[in-house]
Amino acid sequence: MNVSIITIGDEILIGQVVDTNSAWIGKKLNESGFTLREILSVSDNLEEIKDAISRSFNKSSVVLVTGGLGPTKDDITKKALCEYFNVESVFHEETFSRITKMFEKRNFPISSSHRDQCYLPANAIVLKNDLGTAPGMWIDHHGKVLVSMPGVPHEMYHLMEERVLPKLKAFYDGPPVKHLTIRTAGVGESVLSDMLSEIESNLPDCVKLAYLPDVGQVRLRFTIKGLPENEMDDILNTLKLSTLQKLGNLVYATEDMALEEFIGKELIKKGLKLVTCESCSGGFLAHKITSIAGSSEYFLGSIVSYANEIKHDVLKVPEEILRQFGAVSQETAEAMIKGGLELTGADIAISITGVAGPGGGTDEKPVGTVWIAVGNAEKIHAKKFYFTKDRIRNIQYSAANGLVMLRKFLLEN
Amino acid sequence: MNVSIITIGDEILIGQVVDTNSAWIGKKLNESGFTLREILSVSDNLEEIKDAISRSFNKSSVVLVTGGLGPTKDDITKKALCEYFNVESVFHEETFSRITKMFEKRNFPISSSHRDQCYLPANAIVLKNDLGTAPGMWIDHHGKVLVSMPGVPHEMYHLMEERVLPKLKAFYDGPPVKHLTIRTAGVGESVLSDMLSEIESNLPDCVKLAYLPDVGQVRLRFTIKGLPENEMDDILNTLKLSTLQKLGNLVYATEDMALEEFIGKELIKKGLKLVTCESCSGGFLAHKITSIAGSSEYFLGSIVSYANEIKHDVLKVPEEILRQFGAVSQETAEAMIKGGLELTGADIAISITGVAGPGGGTDEKPVGTVWIAVGNAEKIHAKKFYFTKDRIRNIQYSAANGLVMLRKFLLEN
Lengths: 413, 413
Hints:
Two copies of one chain form a homodimer. With 413 residues, chain A is of the alpha/beta class.
């Protein structure tokens, strides 16, 4: 089934905001076996929106619209929907009582513009938004569907996952699709592709293999469609086994699971407590770890020792080491591990120290130089990396490679 | 003059890649006074590309196409251009000799697919690409223009800045556009909209006001066009003053700047060093702060005291406080401030402790309950929040509201 996306908002066209929603939706649709045919971004203009809807219906049976549902005057998606479908806008009591409760709980006054948010096109099936005021809307139209969602990413994610995708799957009557996701960490797409070349060239026609790279990780996704369910299961099982055989330890999960979640499960299994000692990653590794629900079971905390004083005063990195080898060195990374274990009583520690940039680089240690160490009371592994010239990417690569090293250490020790 | 963008590539539609090119182009066009009317993303498919070109020419006099020019992919974009304009593809000697030199310099062999890159539509004016093999192409068509560029960001930036924008400016000088961005923190879109209702209903027709909400913050953007430059400046200045008058302290910048960047500048101005003491935000506040280049000038670090032992052992929160009031309490938040200041010698500290969820909630302290405190050696401000049921949201709201409180404290003390 073909799907089109329309994103609405001047902020996208003047480049103030990058449209990350469409990529997120594209990924989700693809995972569910739907084909995203095109993405159209238009301005907050009534005629442009109506024209975009009509063009998208020409291309696809499902049109997903994001944006333009806020309480302010520049948000005109609902008006465009009413005009396009030639329906009145009606007050939706349930939404009003939901918003009212939401505001009472937070002790915020409810404004007239919030009341306006409860007027919805008469032909809309309301999709309850648990995370914000503007509800989503599902509109059936001559055997096709238009779905309107707020552009605020987390509200859109919530509506897509909880309301829209389940309904779309029910709506969809095409051949069944199955996926097998294999999560790998530690090597890039081209290395994996070489290792899997034999499997890939022998794939049956009904199977597609996609490489979905992320920082430090690659997700492999086998998609199969058009056969009876049990035959598809058999083929995917065979593929799972042969992929595991080829990739061995590079695979950390045969389901869709973040590496930090896998590590959490390993720590729980082994009854170990973790501490992170971060410098250039600035807390991002701790953030990744604590994004996983239940991480308090194994994560004690992080010492983000951004300044050398904190490395010395809190993590007890000896002054001689900082002076002789510098903050970005194997010696400092290892001393941070020892200090972190000592300070917190953790069983295992990881440390990251490097030059995130743009400033602070030298000929010897250019921007992007990062030392990462993982260790326990008995042994420490340290490794030097050269990442990029870009600060944000260096922070992301540091945390991602820290997780890869942490997994390796947990498997080996 | 209206411009349309077409981005070509399956990787965009399956969500493997976020289209950041379009936002970059949108910003550049907007700065130059051109109007980006729409962005259309389509797959690597001949018919889809030709259809996209024809639809875009219906909308705009300039069509900018990115992607589909690489050596590994078949030249689907060039093929589509030849078919759409009904022209042959011809070998471009100059491009071949440029690519040959480029490869000789790097000691790379030149492949047949690189030779294929030198076949270009006969009606194309070649735009030399100094940073890659695929040249840009400028095609005049019945008084309109199509420009084709590679999708690799830095090559596209180079072609836009050096070749395309200068030619577009010569081709057409549109009416200038000006923007005024005002950054606010602390209240939502609808409260702001109520406060600005008078200003908004008296806006001249040539001015548009957009509300761009983010977690804990709203960006206001006034856009004006079509008047002489000095008149537009006058109108925007008047709007800036009246907005500041209405919103007062809710405004933290009258330019486009993140709140964490503003806070950094304030800390530098006042010569203060900051430490963060985080529990439920799990390092995310430290991550936001350290995403700003130069933050090492004012940020000492963070103690992410996820476990109570760390609150007690490292931040010296007295055991009686943890026992009597619990980790999520005003008393603990304040003790974390005192401990953080003492431990690190910082001038100012911020602490966050709450129930991120999904577990850990009680009737008295449900998921989403968060205490945030900001303080120095003389005084501490603490505040209780009820955020959401969603873990990731609670982490983001905690950090965002922490920044809002930090700014307030810096202004008042």
